[in-house]
Design goal:
This protein is α/β, with parallel strands linked by helices. The protein has 2 domains: 57 residues; 210 residues, Rossmann fold. 40% of the residues lie in helices and 17% in strands. The chain is built from 11 helices and 10 strands. It has an 8-stranded mixed β-sheet, with helices on both faces. α8 links the parallel β6 and β7. α5 runs parallel beside α6 and α5 crosses α11. The protein is globular. About 3% of the residues have low confidence. InterPro entries: ThiF/MoeB/HesA, ThiF_NAD_FAD-bd, Ubiquitin-activating_enz. This is HesA/MoeB/ThiF family protein.
Length: 286
């Protein structure tokens, strides 16, 4: 380990560790890119790929992100952009959960959907994409639907859960599972020009409150559809919230729902009080 560290220290360019040096170190010392990156961050060395983070995210913060484990439930419209954002941010461990394959109607908005991935599992496309853009990140693909039955197994060891589901019933199961295991949850939903984002910490019930009058069905996404830009906006906000949870910084969207209207370009908040005073909101899906 000392030899690897000395090697890294000799490769610095303007105080940063170039990607080529990370690759060379992994090959020379027979270790993973993840091990190289973690060692560098533990010893105050900033990988050059994160240099544009460094005035916003410290080396200590970058290490926290790298050592975190974030689960993304759904790898479609929201999930693809969430995976992209987390990997580029430097989250070290990502669990990608989705039972589906890509279909042609996904091509208009899903980052991971291309003509070449049609018919292929979404989680494997997520794995390939992250390996392409940040091979130091470890992705665990799970081609299964999240539900109460497998929730504990999937959520074990997770720092944050990010909701990119298109089913309100499964979303409520995720919220209940996270509550039972004390895991923060970042909820996002979209439909047409509209979306919303909520961060729910253990002990809170904002997501359950939003959908308390829901009976069945996926929500209005089936009626409104989703253009290309809505998932990109909402997913980016979810990644920002997940980052803040991991780092313990900033004001989270706790007990408040950020409503997004891209048609009239309006953003507003609903602050949650007692259940009887809460806004019904749109029953959006991913």
């Amino acid at each position: 380990m000392n030899a690897l560290l000395r090697f890294l220290q000799k490769q610095l360019v303007e105080g940063m560790l170039p990607w080529s040096a990370q690759v060379a170190a992994a090959q020379r010392f027979g270790c993973t890119l993840a091990a190289v990156e973690e060692l560098a961050l533990e010893h105050g060395i900033f990988p050059a790929r994160y240099q544009r983070n460094c005035t916003t995210i410290t080396i200590a913060d970058q290490l926290l992100l790298f050592q975190s484990r974030i689960i993304v439930i759904g790898c479609g419209g929201l999930g693809g952009y969430i995976m992209e954002g987390l990997a580029r941010l430097g989250v070290g461990n990502i669990v990608a959960v989705d039972p589906d394959i890509f279909e042609e109607h996904n091509l208009n908005r899903q980052l991971l959907a291309t003509p070449a991935t049609l018919g292929k599992p979404k989680v494997l496309a997520a794995l390939a994409r992250v390996n392409e853009i940040n091979p130091a990140v470890t992705v665990t693909p799970v081609m299964d639907a999240f539900c109460t039955a497998n929730g504990r197994e999937l959520l074990t060891g997770v720092t944050v859960a990010v909701d990119a589901l298109d089913s309100i019933s499964y979303r409520l199961e995720l919220a209940d599972s996270c509550a039972g295991m004390g895991i923060p949850m970042i909820h996002g939903a979209i439909g047409g020009w509209y979306g919303h984002v909520v961060t729910q910490l253990p002990g809170e019930t904002t997501v359950q409150d939003i959908y308390r009058n829901w009976k069945n069905g996926k929500g209005i996404e089936k009626e409104l559809g989703n253009p290309a830009f809505t998932p990109a906006v909402v997913a980016s906000l979810q990644v920002a919230e997940a980052c803040k949870v991991v780092l313990g910084k900033g004001e989270l969207l706790r007990r408040r729902k950020l409503n997004i209207d891209l048609l009239d370009m309006e953003f507003d908040e609903v602050n949650f009080g007692p259940v009887e005073d809460m806004d019904e909101g749109l029953h959006l899906a991913a």
